[in-house]
Specification:
Largest sheet: 10 strands, mixed
CATH architecture of the largest domain: Sandwich
Shape: globular
Strand content: over 45%
Oligomer: single chain
Helix content: under 10%
Structural class: mainly beta
Number of domains: 2
Number of strands: 21
CATH topology of the largest domain: Jelly Rolls
CATH class of the largest domain: Mainly Beta
Length: 325
């Protein structure tokens, strides 16, 4: 994504509101009958206490009309952008992306090419000179929901300017009117009785400064990789792939190890669209440990079965880090 894109589409922010979930703990990790270390799971009272303080805060980016046959390259040059702020200090513990119409009816996930939401008060640890903020949410047509392990949270203050950048597309034979990208923050208000461990987001991609995409020639299989040094001691607790249709796999390798500690492989339909990214997301409460300066390598593979160039494809992994004790 080029750094100096002139956004020419006007947008509206619709704050649906926030409320405690009334549908049970669907956004929480299921608790095993016995923990991996042999310990007992949290009691029912502890679980209910955790759920009671959570609420969904819903934002919409749009609307925009998507005529049939709209290629992502068109929208990559003029993405939807929106600045917003939260109404109170929050611990964000999860994210849920969707594509909806003006009535809130869910639309096909294939309409989303890429969405990145950044905290403009934070520097991107992989590109501190960019001045474009630090991404903390990234979504593609997979619409991957993220739930941080219990006890962790990403802090957002009222003073933090947040920016959403959304690229939509429509390669179907049907036109869509008044399309929105919907982002739900699953959050808990900050307070003296809320003590969570800070999580630092980091979007690991081929070009962290400009969010540049990749192109693949017809009938070609390609694999791209990039290696970065960790900015500080940290445990990597969550990761998910940010890839498109014709994507084959995404993986992360720690400290030059001979094999990845996490790899997700795409299951495609007959049109080579991603049906499922098997093994995604990675989530581990203890995390994968890194020391400052340790290498983290991203590898993303694409297999272009088509007779046309694949352009504007994303190749990244959104990771969440926690400081070591």
């Amino acid at each position: 994504m080029r750094k100096h894109i002139l956004t020419i589409i006007c947008l509206t922010l619709v704050l649906i509101g926030c409320s405690k979930s009334g549908s049970g703990p669907s956004y929480l990790d299921p608790e095993p009958s016995v923990g991996s270390d042999g310990s007992s799971p949290p009691s029912v009272d502890e679980r209910l206490a955790w759920e009671a303080g959570l609420k969904d805060i819903v934002y919409h980016v749009g609307p925009v009309d998507l005529p049939k046959g709209l290629e992502p390259e068109v929208m990559l040059e003029r993405p939807l952008t929106m600045r917003f702020q939260v109404d109170e200090p929050l611990w964000v513990v999860g994210f849920k992306p969707k594509v909806v119409d003006k009535n809130g009816t869910e639309l096909p996930s294939e309409l989303l090419h890429l969405a990145i939401v950044s905290n403009m008060h934070e520097d991107n640890p992989l590109c501190s000179d960019a001045g474009s903020g630090n991404p903390f949410v990234a979504a593609t047509s997979m619409l991957t929901s993220i739930n941080l392990p219990r006890g962790y949270g990403y802090p957002i203050l009222q003073s933090d300017p947040l920016e959403a950048m959304v690229v939509l597309k429509n390669d179907s034979d049907e036109s869509y009117i008044d399309v929105f990208f919907e982002l739900t923050l699953i959050a808990r208000p900050m307070g003296e009785f809320t003590k969570l461990r800070d999580v630092k987001p980091m979007l690991v991609e081929l070009d962290p400064c400009d969010h540049e995409t990749v192109s693949v020639a017809p009938g070609k299989f390609v694999e791209h990789s990039a290696t970065y040094q960790m900015p500080s001691d940290a445990n990597l607790i969550v990761a998910h792939g940010v890839i498109e249709d014709f994507g084959s796999s995404v993986e992360l390798v720690a400290r030059g190890a001979p094999s990845p500690f996490w790899r997700a492989e795409a299951e495609l339909d007959e049109n080579h669209r991603i049906k499922e990214l098997i093994g995604d997301p990675f989530s581990e409460s203890e995390g994968v440990g890194f020391k400052e300066g340790d290498e983290l390598t991203l590898s993303v593979a694409y297999d272009n079965f088509s007779e046309s160039w694949l352009t504007g494809a994303t190749a990244a992994a959104m990771v969440y880090l926690s400081s070591k004790d």
